[in-house]
Write a structure and sequence with these properties.
single chain, 141 residues, alpha+beta, 60s Ribosomal Protein L30, Chain: A, seven-stranded mixed β-sheet, 7 strands, 26% helix, globular
Length: 141
């Protein structure tokens, strides 16, 4: 835990900042935390369907990768004392936009009652060619 300085209306304050890591090799290589909590807001970094070692699960299966991605997001939130019910925003990046319904099905299974704001965007590729889906999330405690 560290603190970051915030200025609101001329008033300066220090806000507690918590970080959590999943241990995948990408975090160290790129230099980021899996999730960062500042005050009541949690920002979850782009997350993919990997196991703890960083190995992509189910190459070619967009639905399974999406399910694992959301489970990885859930695990990051749990380490900060939150759950998927706290998610207010997701951003979904897919390498094959014509397969968006596979991703939407998995997203709805986890967030169907939560209804976060979301975006679903087609991208040329992700950092590993076997990765088909990456999701960012924001949550509020």
């Amino acid at each position: 835990m560290d603190r970051c300085k915030v200025e609101i209306g001329g008033l300066r304050m220090k806000i507690k900042r918590n970080k959590t890591f999943s241990g995948t090799p990408w975090e160290a290589k790129v230099g980021y935390a899996r999730a960062v909590q500042v005050g009541d807001v949690v920002h979850v970094s782009g997350t993919t369907g990997t196991d703890p070692s960083g190995k992509v699960l189910a190459p070619g299966d967009m639905y399974v990768q999406t399910v694992q991605t959301i489970r990885n997001i859930e695990n990051a939130l749990k380490r900060l004392g939150l759950g998927l019910e706290h998610v207010v925003r997701t951003r979904i990046y897919v390498t094959q936009i014509n397969r968006w319904e596979e991703v939407a099905k998995a997203h709805a299974e986890f967030f169907g009652e939560v209804h976060p704001a979301t975006s679903l965007v087609g991208v040329a590729s992700l950092i590993d060619p076997d990765m088909l889906v990456e999701i960012e999330a924001e949550a509020v405690a």
